[in-house]
Write a sequence for this structure.
């Protein structure tokens, strides 16, 4: 037992030799700077069901930002998307399932969009666009089911996209209607490049992440005219920050962020307000 | 043991067994004979020959304890009046024997009881320092048996003129206890003769204390260390002259430590930490860094690391090993390629005789072990085998990827394992042919996954791993100064790993019956990998105390088979009743165009040379360089491997050891080693499906990684009364350039990548060992390391997924004449997630510090042949865990073994 006691004593004495990374170190230099307001009377819900199984304000403005960043370039896009799995509640030090109304700080936004993926744009065929959205919704839970393990592949879309989904239908046939910029996307799609859609998204998706095999490799395919976003480091969170700061969301709390019904979900399970 | 041939070059003193015989012993009680073997000769074993009056000699093998300390217990049945006589000999690999303690013609004599030897009182015994002394306790009383002939110098190694061993030989042949005057050695030099104390009954004058003693005198003093305290206080020859001394765990130590597998043994080595991953593999971290292909594991000199992924089978039992040697950091240049973070050298037991062990215990554990060897003339046959079966411990896994915040299903670890290890060989030795040896070994491990493939409990997973190792080697001493050796070897490994990725009955899409998997989603990966090689080297003793070794090694590594099968259609996630090739997967054996994959074959040519120079008796310098030429595939702009190039890796090593006196060695060593990416790291392309998110994938753009290692330290031996205290300490700094690591940056498939700016680790470790007697010792070792990834922001650099502080301690004490009690404690500090990427940052986990205690009760040899033992591992049933690759899904970490109890029977025939 004396030996055991000596072991413990040394173990306790050794604590001074042990060091760990500071998990709370801000990811940006100006973490308290306001980038937008969360609209008065609303909240941002960041838990997995609300990020991956419903329209989400942060995901939507991120997609809008991806579209915005290419707006005045020679490769303006028709639409943009980001995956629900990119919206994180974990934070650096605290889990943040709810962001309440009021100012949204730059540090918080970077913790929500913390992967720091590059934003790229490519040309997609009509069929690829359709398949992309079918894949995005194939794992949604039909109504009556608990949203047990929502897939991160669910896409948050930019304002150009109008999508209607019926979760009572089988996977692969859930997209009821899809239009981009007011034009319907046909299924089966017309041949490429006769009809093509230019889309912006994070490099993760163009690497085939979250099972998007129809997107994999398009960023290295010259026929798809891949382009990287050049401003703000080309990074998703930085671009979103820049977009929000110059947007109306950053003017008054009444005009702040709020999710839009861009994806109409029918017969799908609906997530509830999370606990914070 | 690998360094012993190196030591042989120093042209240093003769080998001797430093031992103080007791004046007398008690009848009917075992007598422990122990001592250090000095000198530079590599013995295959050390034996003691003992006899009673008018009896033939019986031969007993001395067991290596640690360092150069050997020990044997003369059985009680042998201890009968009037006494015993014994001598100690070293057996060379050729079978030739060298006298180490007296000679068997004039053995040491120990009186027992009141019986008298013929002629016992005729001459008074002489004290070691040459004085005549009284007979009495504490003074060995040894006489030349009148019936024995005079010892002949021919029995001993021929001393070389001018060599410092000549005088020692004279001393050996006429030990200080010998009352008769010594015949001067025929070949002693004039200078040495002057130093020779005058022979005859006249006491020799003591040396002036102010005059520094020559090395020879030091050796003589050591040999005559029966003086004063009777304690020999010097480090082993190897320690005094090796710039990079390995840590050695002998069979006796392994027994006392209560370890059953190589992995368990390695966890007690300073600066090593062994963890288990979700798949159940044992992973060894060396100095805070952990990467399977970077720890070179050798079994009798043949590499165990799989040519595909670099993993080595660490669940091998230790019972048929004679020792485990561990180098931390790059070893000497004669190892390699592959000696990167460290080297583990496993040496099987080839001592003559038959040894059996059987044990059984918790969770249906049963194992049996056999090692045997027999020499018949110039031929030695040897073999060993292990058979291990266990159901394995069962601990709950709180959560996995298929649990929800509100719904969990009962899940447990499964550590079922069946291991077969069988090897045999034959060695033939003759003066003309040298030593020719042929050996083969078959290893099989068939087990379950401890948790599963990745993030889900899959108790139906089944992992098979078979290995055949074969070697044909030859070694011949061409002259007094030149030895050549060569070895042809083959390593054929086959792995067949069936992973259950989801629970049985899992349905991917709720309303799609085609996605229902009755047995769960399955994936089977089959890999065959073969290495063929030839190793040749020459060792030369050069003038001016130089010893040179040079060699080359060629090897061809090939993937002999490869398959990636699934029971689901990639993408559609629909069920297929039979396992079939996964869609979209390009095998490393294929180039995608009908040809052979560029990563499937690798030719390596290694050249090395090293010189050991000993400019003075207290200083040794070792310098060497290793050049390895690797065939590596190269990618085109799209990342496809389309060609191959030859890449050179240069590994210089230099070290110095300073031994200002025989109890202290100071060391400093620098080494660089290069490791090319494995085939898996380059070319594994698993299917990109929903269920495979998180798989590691190959990266064709990887470049070789390099380690620069500097380490310095000391080793000190102090006699404390009748005990020996050994202190060692090492401080180190290691810097890795282009380290290959898998850092999850996406949550999707994770490619191996060269980390930018590199990784560094610095730290220190040390050990204190107090040897009180053969049956009583205590030791502690501690290690501290700080490892950093320099490619991340300053606040995120620390690598904390392995313990930064380790502390191990052990105690062995006798309980009465027949029982021994061993206790070993292992402490590891708290571990936390690394922060190299935001994913690692947010997938936070904390694995608390733990202390695990092993206790063992075992008997001394009963009836000289049988030992019984009861071993308890983790006796306080401490719950501790290791890190999981997805701590956000396997939230409780990887549970480690619960309390385990085993009963053991050892038999020596």
């Amino acid at each position: 037992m004396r030996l055991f006691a000596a072991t413990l004593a040394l173990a306790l004495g050794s604590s001074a030799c042990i060091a760990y990374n500071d998990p709370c170190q801000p990811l940006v230099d100006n973490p308290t700077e306001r980038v937008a307001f969360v609209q008065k009377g609303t909240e941002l819900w960041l838990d997995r069901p609300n990020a991956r199984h419903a329209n989400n304000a942060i995901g939507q403005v991120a997609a809008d930002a991806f579209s915005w960043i290419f707006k005045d370039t020679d490769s303006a896009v028709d639409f943009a998307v980001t995956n629900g799995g990119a919206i994180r509640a974990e934070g650096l030090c605290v889990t943040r399932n709810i962001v309440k109304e009021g100012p949204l700080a730059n540090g918080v936004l970077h913790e929500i969009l913390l992967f720091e993926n590059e934003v790229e744009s490519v040309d997609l065929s009509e069929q690829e666009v359709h398949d992309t959205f079918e894949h995005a919704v194939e794992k949604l839970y039909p109504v009556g089911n608990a949203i047990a393990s929502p897939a991160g592949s669910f896409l948050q879309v930019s304002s150009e996209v109008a999508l209607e989904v019926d979760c009572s239908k089988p996977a692969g046939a859930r997209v009821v209607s899809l239009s981009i910029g007011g034009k319907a996307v046909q299924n089966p799609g017309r041949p490429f490049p006769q009809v093509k859609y230019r889309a912006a998204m994070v490099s993760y998706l163009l690497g085939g992440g979250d099972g998007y095999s129809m997107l994999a490799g398009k960023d290295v395919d010259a026929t798809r005219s891949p382009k990287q976003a050049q401003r703000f480091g080309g990074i998703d969170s930085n671009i979103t920050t820049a977009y929000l700061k110059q947007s109306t969301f950053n003017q008054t709390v009444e005009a702040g962020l709020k999710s839009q019904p861009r994806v109409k979900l029918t017969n799908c399970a609906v997530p509830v307000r999370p606990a914070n | 043991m690998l360094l012993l041939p190196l030591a042989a070059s120093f042209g240093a003193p003769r080998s001797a067994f430093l031992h103080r015989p007791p004046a007398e012993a008690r009848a009917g009680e075992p007598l422990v004979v122990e001592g250090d073997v000095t000198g530079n000769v590599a013995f295959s074993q050390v034996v003691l020959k003992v006899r009673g009056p008018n009896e033939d000699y019986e031969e007993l093998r001395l067991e290596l304890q640690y360092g150069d300390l050997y020990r044997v217990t003369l059985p009680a049945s042998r201890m009968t009046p009037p006494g015993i006589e014994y001598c100690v000999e070293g057996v060379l690999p050729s079978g030739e024997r060298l006298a180490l303690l007296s000679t068997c013609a004039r053995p040491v004599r120990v009186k027992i009881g009141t019986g008298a030897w013929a002629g016992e009182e005729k001459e008074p015994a002489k004290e070691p320092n040459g004085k005549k002394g009284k007979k009495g306790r504490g003074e060995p009383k040894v006489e030349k048996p009148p019936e024995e002939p005079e010892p002949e110098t021919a029995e001993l190694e021929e001393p070389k003129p001018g060599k410092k061993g000549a005088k020692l030989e004279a001393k050996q042949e006429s030990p200080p206890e010998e009352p008769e005057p010594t015949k001067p050695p025929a070949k002693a030099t004039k200078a040495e003769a002057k130093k020779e104390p005058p022979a005859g009954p006249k006491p020799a004058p003591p040396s002036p204390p102010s005059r520094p003693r020559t090395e020879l005198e030091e050796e003589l003093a050591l040999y005559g260390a029966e003086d004063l305290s009777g304690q020999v206080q010097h480090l082993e020859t190897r320690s005094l002259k090796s710039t990079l001394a390995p840590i050695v765990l002998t069979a006796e130590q392994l027994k006392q430590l209560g370890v059953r597998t190589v992995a368990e043994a390695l966890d007690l080595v300073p600066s090593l930490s062994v963890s288990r991953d979700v798949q159940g593999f044992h992973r060894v971290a060396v100095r805070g860094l952990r990467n399977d292909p970077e720890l070179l594991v050798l079994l009798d000199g043949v590499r165990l690391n799989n040519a595909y992924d670099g993993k080595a089978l660490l669940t091998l039992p230790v019972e048929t090993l004679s020792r485990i040697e561990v180098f931390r950091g790059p070893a000497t240049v004669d190892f390699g390629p592959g000696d990167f973070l460290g080297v583990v050298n496993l040496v099987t037991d080839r001592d003559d005789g038959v040894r059996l062990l059987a044990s059984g215990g918790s969770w249906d554990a049963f194992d049996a072990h056999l090692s045997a060897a027999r020499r018949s003339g110039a031929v030695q046959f040897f073999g060993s085998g292990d058979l291990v079966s266990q159901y394995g411990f069962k601990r709950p896994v709180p959560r996995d990827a298929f649990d929800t915040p509100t719904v969990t299903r009962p899940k447990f670890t499964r550590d079922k394992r069946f291991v077969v290890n069988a090897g045999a060989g034959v060695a033939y030795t003759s003066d003309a042919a040298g030593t020719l040896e042929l050996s083969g070994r078959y290893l099989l491990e068939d087990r379950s996954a401890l948790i599963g493939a990745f993030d889900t409990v899959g108790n139906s997973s089944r992992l098979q791993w078979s290995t055949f190792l074969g070697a044909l080697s030859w070694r011949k001493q061409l002259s007094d100064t030149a030895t050549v050796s060569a070895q042809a070897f083959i390593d054929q490994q086959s792995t067949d790993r069936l992973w259950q990725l989801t629970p049985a009955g899992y349905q991917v899409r709720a309303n799609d019956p085609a996605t229902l998997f009755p047995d769960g989603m399955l994936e089977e990966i089959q890999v065959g990998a073969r290495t063929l090689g030839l190793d040749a080297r020459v060792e030369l003793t050069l003038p001016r105390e130089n010893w040179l070794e040079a060699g080359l090694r060629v090897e061809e590594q090939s993937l002999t088979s490869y398959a990636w099968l699934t029971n689901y259609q990639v993408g559609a996630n629909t069920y297929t009743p039979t396992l079939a090739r996964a869609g979209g997967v390009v095998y490393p054996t294929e180039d995608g165009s009908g040809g052979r994959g560029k990563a499937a074959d690798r030719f390596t040519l290694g050249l090395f040379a090293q010189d050991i120079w000993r400019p003075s008796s207290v200083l040794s310098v070792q310098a060497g360089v290793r050049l390895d030429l690797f065939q590596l595939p190269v990618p085109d702009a799209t990342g496809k491997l389309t060609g191959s190039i030859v890449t050179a890796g240069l590994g210089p090593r230099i070290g110095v050891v300073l031994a200002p006196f025989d109890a202290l060695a100071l060391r400093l060593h620098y080494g660089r080693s290069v490791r090319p990416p494995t085939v898996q790291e380059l070319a594994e392309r698993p299917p990109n499906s929903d269920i495979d998110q998180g798989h590691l994938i190959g990266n064709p753009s990887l470049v070789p990684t390099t380690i620069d290692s500097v380490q310095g330290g000391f080793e000190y031996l102090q006699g404390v009364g009748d005990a020996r205290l050994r202190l060692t300490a090492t401080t180190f700094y290691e810097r890795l350039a282009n380290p290959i690591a898998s850092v999850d940056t996406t949550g999707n498939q994770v490619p191996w990548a060269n980390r930018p700016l590199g990784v560094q680790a610095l730290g220190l470790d040390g050990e204190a060992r107090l040897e009180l007697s053969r049956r009583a010792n205590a030791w502690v070792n501690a290690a501290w390391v700080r490892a950093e990834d320099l490619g991340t922001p300053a606040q995120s650099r620390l690598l904390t997924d392995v313990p930064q502080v380790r502390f191990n301690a052990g105690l062995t004490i006798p309980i009465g004449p027949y029982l021994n009690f061993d206790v070993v404690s292992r402490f590891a500090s708290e571990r936390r997630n690394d922060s190299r990427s935001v994913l690692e940052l947010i997938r936070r986990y904390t694995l608390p510090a733990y202390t695990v205690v092993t206790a063992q009760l075992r008997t001394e040899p009963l009836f000289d042949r049988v030992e019984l033992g009861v071993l308890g591992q983790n006796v306080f049933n401490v719950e501790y865990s290791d890190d999981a690759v997805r701590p956000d899904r396997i939230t409780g970490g990887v549970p480690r073994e619960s309390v385990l109890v085993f009963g053991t029977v050892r038999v020596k025939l």
